[in-house]
Design a protein that fits this description.
The protein is mainly α. It is about 80% helix and about 0% strand. Helix 1 runs antiparallel to helix 2. The chain is rod-shaped, with a radius of gyration of 18 Å. The two termini are about 15 Å apart.
Length: about 80
């Protein structure tokens, strides 16, 4: 009786966390877009370049978490 419920709630949990990871990745992408000109900046604007690198790392890491969470949910949902 609890098996299907536990599997469905586990799949739902992975999908919800995937959405939250995706939202954080979108915030990282938004920050990357705002600081996109900092890539070719000189040494005067070192802080903007650091922000760009940090936002890129956030977007990549949380984008990976989002995709892997949805893939795990898909695999868990297909199991019997």
């Amino acid at each position: 009786m609890w098996g299907p419920f536990a599997r469905a709630s586990g799949v739902l949990w992975l999908e919800v966390t995937g959405v939250f990871f995706g939202l954080i990745a979108l915030f990282g992408l938004q920050g990357m877009w705002t600081h996109r000109t900092a890539w070719r900046q000189t040494a005067e604007d070192h802080a903007a370049h650091q922000h760009l690198l940090l936002e890129t790392a956030v977007a990549v890491a949380f984008g990976y978490f989002c995709i892997s969470s949805f893939l795990r949910a898909s695999r868990r949902g297909r199991r019997r």
